[in-house]
Amino acid sequence: MAKKRLVVGNWKMYIDKPEEARSLALALRRKVRGLSGVDVYVAPSLTQVPAISALLESSPIKVGAQTISPYTAGAHTGGVSAAMLKGAGAQFVIVGHSERRAEGDTNAVVREQLIRTVDAGLVPLLCIGEEARGVDGEHFEVIEEQLTSALKNISKNTVKKLIVAYEPVWAIGKRVEDAMKPAQLEEMTIFIRKMLASLLDREAALKVPILYGGSVEAQNAASLIKEGGVNGLLVGRASAGVDSFIEIIQAVK
Ligand code: PGA
Q1: CA-proximal residue: ligand 1, atom 9 (nearest)
Q2: 149, 108 Cβ separation under 8 angstroms
Q3: What is the pLDDT of residue 2?
Q4: Is the CB of 236 under 6 A from ligand 1?
Q5: Whether 19 is catalytic
Q6: Is the pTM of this model over 0.90?
Q7: pLDDT, the chain, mean
């Protein structure tokens, strides 16, 4: 299992002014310098990817995109292809985020997006997560279906680069008290690890980092990692502020 922890910031549509995005990136660059034991990635809005990736070029922070077109090229108005993202400076892509799934990205689309991402030489961060929890364990079925659809018979190259983020939809965008509890998370981390081992080469599956996302703050960050058994965190709201994001990074390193 990957030892180094990973904290990914998903800026969503929180920062609309380019100068605010730039000052957040500059502050992160300063504060992350010299930190060891943790990798930091950020996903600004698409229009900010070129400027932020240029700003962070000489820093260890990787810059990525929040989504991608499932198509390679052609007549797809509004689409942004993997090659375009790469040209804009992106190094990774968040694929299958629940907020994109809610806007129509099906499991089949997510698989195409994953393939396009890897074919362009970018790292895919595959998001999975159930919308609600029933009493009969249906949430495990949802996860199984999402993982199987995205990863069955996928290329070895994809497996080498893959990062999985488990984000229960019911825990996203809430207060820290509403986040998943570490013990609940541990059960799901074990299930995901088993699923990965059955879908992929066993050895390779062990190396896939699994992240947790959903109302992460400095308060719950360390226990989610330690007790929840994940390799890192995908952070939304708290990643759009320097202090709140740095506190999380400090808490997990
Ligand atoms: P949140 O978002 O930290 O604001 O809950 C997480 C995510 O959606 O990636």
Answers
A1: 236
A2: yes
A3: 46
A4: yes
A5: no
A6: yes
A7: 96
